[in-house]
């Protein structure tokens, strides 16, 4: 389980009490070390062997902590961090049309998106997220913020039919999005996807066009679909077909599709998803808070559908905490199926790491700790009153740990969080920007 490192300059060794590779169910290693060379994992071995084999390498020793792959937040609207708590306790349609969209129309610009994304990235890094998939306006500003911070991102080239501060119509959304893709396409940490908002806001013709581009450029396509019963019923009333059937009709069901929310599914639709190797992005807390419904996670997994987990935006969640989201996914499934064995701790943790990597087509690079993969690693301190004693570090993370126990984060071999302190972002400035935006919005 190693790459020949004799001629390489070993940069660092990280050791901890536990290591969860996420490449084998319910499996962890004790007192092991990860060797990082450049931006990749080049060896995984017992800590004593690592010290003997690489005597000149600097060592980071994390007693009482666990190393695992970073969380992959498979769906969020990062810049909406600036709208956290603006409007709560409303159904989705009313929340969007009366509270969110009017404020976005007035305030969303380059500065809003850049500063809001910085805020979200800071929260995600401090929560152990090393990669996020976004869907919002001004993808150029999202890419800029992500690249500066060092986090890995799969950025949505958002498409809607109506005029926004980003583009006048769907075609301009596509054209401007492709320009951003060209600008950052050689980045090692920035990837892109097409992000039509939903079947009810994007026309059939535009979806067909995006399907063609997605296949030509091998870019994934994420879309909100079957989020609420009202959405499905309204679409059927207007078009005579369910939204997922529309996507199937125009050829969008494929391994490139990331179907977000999916709370309203029947058996036939689950079979379509499985046969087409689509990915489902589960956002349990947002769906619960908006009373949108429950994604049938166990039926999807049993059918062979890859399940990933996302937080959705902080305006509807109201946080970007993947540890808590993973816990919610497991608990919600157990309640929904009235089965305590449903969506085990490992299954949820897999969805929050490798499941997300697969959804984005990044499974060869991230999602597990394996030799040859990118060094996207987090450390979680379990040596706390709240998480002791440790019999099973996987269940302890999912059912007991909190995000403030994330101590260190590396992305692509670069340390972004060290002993709870951000290395690449200015926390006081981010807080000041958030307060400035609050002042503008409440005094509008």
UniProtKB/TrEMBL annotation:
Highest taxon above the source species: Bacteria
EC number: 3.5.4.28, 3.5.4.31
Binding, substrate: 104, 197, 227, 312
Every Amidohydrolase-related domain range: 66-415
Cofactor: Zn(2+)
InterPro entries per the UniProt record, alphabetical: Amidohydro-rel (IPR006680), Deaminase_MtaD/DadD (IPR023512), Metal-dep_hydrolase_composite (IPR011059), Metal_Hydrolase (IPR032466), MTA/SAH_deaminase (IPR050287)
Cofactor note: Binds 1 zinc ion per subunit.
GO molecular function, one term: metal ion binding
Residues annotated for Zn(2+) binding in this entry: 75, 77, 224, 312
UniProt keyword terms in alphabetical order: Hydrolase, Metal-binding, Zinc
Function of the protein: Catalyzes the deamination of 5-methylthioadenosine and S-adenosyl-L-homocysteine into 5-methylthioinosine and S-inosyl-L-homocysteine, respectively. Is also able to deaminate adenosine.
Protein family: Belongs to the metallo-dependent hydrolases superfamily. ATZ/TRZ family. Belongs to the metallo-dependent hydrolases superfamily. MTA/SAH deaminase family.
Classification via NCBIfam families: PRK09045.1
Name by which UniProt lists this protein: 5-methylthioadenosine/S-adenosylhomocysteine deaminase
Lineage, opening ranks: Bacteria, Pseudomonadati, Pseudomonadota, Gammaproteobacteria, Oceanospirillales
